[in-house]
Design goal:
It holds the Pfam family DUF2958. This is DUF2958 family protein. InterPro entries: DUF2958. The chain is 31% helix and 23% strand. The protein has 125 residues and is α+β, with helices and mostly antiparallel strands. It has a 5-stranded antiparallel sheet. Strand 1 and strand 2 form a beta hairpin. The chain is globular, with a radius of gyration of 14 Å.
Length: 125
């Protein structure tokens, strides 16, 4: 579901956190439900358990930082069509730290990707 080059970045990010070199990583990949409103912006991956960390928005107005099983997401199929429900957005480019996406999502009640909004919340560099 996620390209290997992005998996490698996510594993590296998780290792940094595990080694207490924690950073406010930018999301590496965006997954979304093809037939719903759910969005996952993910930055870290435990490859042993296939558990990712990031901003999870199930489309119910309460996005939060959480863990999600990529195996579980990959197993979700449309009831009638029997096609995968979750797919990767190849056009996604996480430009800001996860904290910026979280702050915007909490204010809007949904994942926000608009650069004009996110850039206002981003710390000055």
């Amino acid at each position: 579901m996620i390209p290997q080059n992005l998996i490698e970045i996510m594993v590296h990010n998780a290792q940094e956190v595990q080694n207490q070199l924690a950073k406010d990583h930018a999301p590496v990949v965006k997954l979304h439900s093809k037939y719903g409103k759910a969005i996952w912006l993910l930055s870290e991956l435990d490859p042993v358990n296939n558990i990712a960390f990031g901003l999870c928005d199930l489309g119910q107005g309460n996005p939060e930082l959480s863990y999600v099983s990529l195996s579980d997401l990959a197993s979700l199929k449309h009831a009638r069509l029997k096609v995968p429900m979750v797919e990767t957005d190849p056009a996604f480019d996480g430009k800001y730290p996860m904290s910026v996406y979280l702050k915007a999502a909490k204010a809007a009640g949904r994942v926000v990707e608009e650069d004009a909004v996110l850039s206002l919340l981003s710390p000055l560099e």
